Amino acid sequence: MEGYRGDLLDVSNLRVFFHTYRGTIKALNGVELWLNQGERLGIVGESGCGKSVTSLAFMQLIEQPGEMTGGRIMFDNKELNTLTEKELDSVRGKDMATIFQEPVSALNPVLKVGFQIGENIKRIKPKASKREVREETANMLELVGLDSKRISGFYPHELSGGMAQRVMIAMALSSSPKLLIADEPTSALDVTIQAQILELLEELVEKMNYSAILITHDMGVAAEFCDKIAVMYAGNTVEYTTVEEIFNNPVHPYAKGLFKAVPKVGQTSELETIAGEVPDLVNPPSGCRFHPRCSHTKPICKDGFPPLQELSPGHFVACYLYGDEDSK
Fold it and tell me: Could you read off the pLDDT of 162-217 as tens digits, one per residue?
């Protein structure tokens, strides 16, 4: 992918709108993201900032009343937003796989989990025999720490939350994807199971050298799992850099506020909060969507959204406080 910022994934100016009875929700307003082979990217931000919609757009799973209204998604030398449904079938669930937030809801309630994993394997390997599919299904369940003989015959409602999430991981990894997207994979689990699932994910991604995107609102999880972080606010990428840099030197006012709100070991003082409220995306603020809550707002902030500029090598920010004056 010569000329693109990431050799596996490059998302440019991604826009997604939802047409509702209240009006048009401008959910994504020019998202910029990229990823290289073998990297792990964390997408963080408040609830409602567009993290999950971004991942659905990657998979071209935006359905009515939503639509992708602009931008480009380059993945493995393919421009996904120009492919037909048939062409997308060779990407979705094969080269790009997703682990969804609610594992039990994502599984078919009337089919046994072994059959569901097997169906995915048959789709990827149509010439595989029944015996090969059974063996591969068993291998995938064992890989994620489940007893294949016992669990294959279970229906989704018979699984605990942690077991269901392991089944979803097994299903996602059964195609050996080039990119694994984990959308809040631990949000419905208790703390102990969360730790087990994250440890398992990290071990498998490391072992198989997968590229991965982790969508989360938990900064500690992002710090543990990811190499790079993209901070989103109200449908925009506002900062993009390495994990070390974002934790040690966040520069966007929203990113600074976000990290000040993270509790620290031994902290006894009150956590800081970001003033104001998340904007209504039916009628979002003009210009930078964060400017009504920002203490550094200038007149230019209300006129146009700032471009994502490279502040230092590998550190990108979308803010008029930084960068070349001429570009403003």
Answer: 899 899 999 999 888 999 999 988 776 777 888 888 888 888 888 888 899 999 88
Burial class (CB within 10 angstroms; exposed 0-12, middle 13-18, buried 19+) of 325:
exposed
Hey, what CATH topology would domain 9-95+179-327 get? Rossmann fold (3.40.50)
Question: In whole angstroms, how large is the CA radius of gyration of the chain?
Answer: 21
CA pair distance 242, 225, nearest whole angstrom: 12
Domain with CATH 3.40.50.300 in the chain: 9-95+179-327
Report the candidate in 217, 328, 227 with the shortest Cα–Cα distance to residue 6.
227
The dihedrals phi and psi of 126, each to the nearest 5 degrees, come to: -60, -20
Closest alpha carbon to 107 in 170, 197, 168, 190: 168
Q: Is 181 helix (H, G, I), strand (E, B) or coil?
A: strand
Cβ burial of 196 (10 Å; 0-12, 13-18, 19+) is middle
Write down the pTM of the prediction: 0.90
CA angle, 101 as apex, 240 and 73 as ends, to 5°?
45
Cβ(233)–Cβ(290) below 8 Å: yes
The sheet with strand 96-99 has its strands ordered as 96-99, 179-183, 211-215, 40-44, 228-233, 236-242, 315-317, 309-312
SS3 31: strand
Query: Which residue is listed with tokens 């039916």?
Result: 282
Residues in contact with 126: Cβ distance below 8 Å, sequence separation at least 6, in sequence order: none
| DSSP per-residue letters across 222-270 | HHHH-SEEEEEETTEEEEEEEHHHHHH---SHHHHHHHHTS--TT--SP
Q: What is the pLDDT of residues 282-322, one digit of tens each?
A: 999 999 999 999 989 999 999 888 999 999 999 999 999 98
**What are the distances in angstroms from CA 226 to CA 98, 145, 229, 251?**
17, 23, 7, 19
**Sole residue written with tokens 């995915």:** 120
- Report residue 50 as tokens: 């567009």
